[in-house]
Amino acid sequence: MFGLCTLGLTLPAAAGAQTAEGSGAYGGTQFYERPVIRDLQCRTGCTRAARVSQAGWVSVKEKGVLRIRGRNFDDVGQVLFLGGSGTADNVGVAPQARTARTLDVKVPVEAGSGKIVLLDPAGNGSEPSRARLRILRTANSLSAQGFIWPLPTRGYLTGHYGEDRGSHMHSGIDLAVPTGTPIKAVAEGRVILVGPQGAYGNFTCLRHARLVTCYAHQSEMLVTYGQFVKQGQQIGTVGSTGRSSGPHLHFEVRQGPEAWTTPLDPFKFLPRRF
Ligand SMILES: [Zn+2]
What we know:
The chain is an all-beta fold. It has 2 domains: 19-136, Immunoglobulin-like, CATH 2.60.40.10; 156-268, Glucose Permease (Domain IIA), CATH 2.70.70. It contains no helices and 22 strands. The chain has strands at residues 19-20, 30-31, 36-44, 52-53, 57-61, 65-71, 78-83, 91-93, 97-98, 102-106, 115-119, 132-136, 156-159, 173-176, 182-184, 189-196, 202-207, 211-221, 228-229, 234-238, 248-255, 263-264. The strands form 5 sheets. Strands 13, 14, 15, 16, 17, 18, 19, 20, 21 and 22 form a 10-stranded antiparallel β-sheet that branches. The chain has a 5-stranded antiparallel β-sheet with strand order 4-3-6-10-9, with no helix packed on it. A 3-stranded antiparallel β-sheet has the order 8-7-11, with no helix packed on it. The chain is elongated and about 65 Å long. The structure holds zinc ion (ZN). Residues 159, 170, 172, 174, 250 line the site of zinc ion.
């Protein structure tokens, strides 16, 4: 019962406790009542699972619409997605529709699963939602930079970017998946390197608009030098060639436009893991 859950809450503090210099209609101080979140609801981009959650989770596909219900929403300027699991947490966006008691917000691709906070123009935040948003993603979800995941499944992250590997820094991420798993181009691009490359084993690099992506240890390479590939096109299969202790994709993002430029953290470019 939704009505019951307000019983234990204190009423908003007297408005004077949350004043802000404002340009009220009469030139005086403007008061904002602190927004209070009651529950989260999936509006569009929902699964068949429960659409409403007060204390648990509510699932919304990315770019779906989350409905936040509660009170004192008239002055909410930003919905803050707290995330909780990644480096790009605390993503704030303006609601797309509102009443005093409901706010609809499109879930941005940068947002991470987690709790929600509402901010009024004076910067006052609501208490975090009790319910958490779970953002549903697929292997074909686009990142903010327009990349897809390079494999049809998430894989098991066995190596992070920047790890100290003794003689060198790990220049990519390692995703363990079975031999033969298709490797997909994360974005459209041109093949600028393909062939055996020592420790990298069978290695392919693609040039995109401003970046280069590379795919190592393949069992099979399915593209040729100079070929144009589409986003999502299979360019090879996962293997364990080169210096590798088991089947995995070693994936790199490098500054463009040549093959052996400075490596970058792939998780700054890939969709959040799903
Ligand atoms: Zn690696």
